[in-house]
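Deliverable D5.2: sample structural annotation.
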Amino acid sequence: MTDRPKPPLDLLIAAPRGFCAGVDRAIRIVELALEKHGAPVYVRHEIVHNKFVVDSLKAKGAVFVEELDEVPPDAHVVFSAHGVPKSVPADAQNRGLDYLDATCPLVSKVHRQAERLVEMGRHIIFIGHAGHPEVIGTFGQVPEGAMSLVETLADVDGLSPADPDNLAFLTQTTLSVDDTAAVVAALQRRFPTIEGPRGEDICYATSNRQAAVKAIAATCDAVLVIGAPNSSNSLRLVEVAERAGKRALLIQRAADLDWAFLDGVRTLGLTAGASAPELLVRELVDRLSERFIVTEREEETTRETIAFKLPRGLETAA
């Protein structure tokens, strides 16, 4: 009895995909802090939303905590890439903790915009997902009541601001480009004088990865997205593929792949969220090769060259 021949599978891999500059920087901050201070280095919340990354850093001596009260006195602590409310570094300072802020510089830019708008007396309408760490961190930059959250067009309809002619809007950096454009348009229709941000708040990496998925989805039967279920930007990539009329599935690792998903698939699209390392992409390609004769092709829609500086004090350790 001979083994059945493997069927062919065309694999169309989106580019750009995977780590963005903010994620790269955040992970490097934890690694360099460990090199400089030795283990343990405490990290408030997941440094980025990816279990593989978090587990890898744990193995190197990082200890992940939910709140600062879990961090012992005189310890070294890192704040996650999603940003934190102002009260968190203030609390760390009061407790004498040595802290490093790994907030993505593009999130920090939104924080500064929020502060500036509140100083100007504007009430901010913030477009984002309730409960996401980035949203919590941004709301924590301004006094309570200075900002209102909207997620949907229905939320926009339900707004009743005290001064409709004195509004501004900002957005979470990891949203759906198309959904956000629709919400912004609805805000501008309802409140024609609303002030927008000086530049796009949705970050370059989120926009680029969504555009790359749109590009490959046109010629794919189905799309796999590598990312965590709590990763906003990864979930948006699944939505983009589905809106292009393609079946899409979010998986964390190659081992999570349900082979039934590939029934009838001749051309498979593959991408990874901004918190997922390239190692996980290669791991999945290897797993696919166990059952298929895989022909890989990368489709690059843009090339990313952005890099962010490390915090002072770590630059010399790099």
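Annotation notes: The mean pLDDT is 96. The chain has ten helices and twelve strands.
The annotation will be released with the project's public dataset once the embargo ends.
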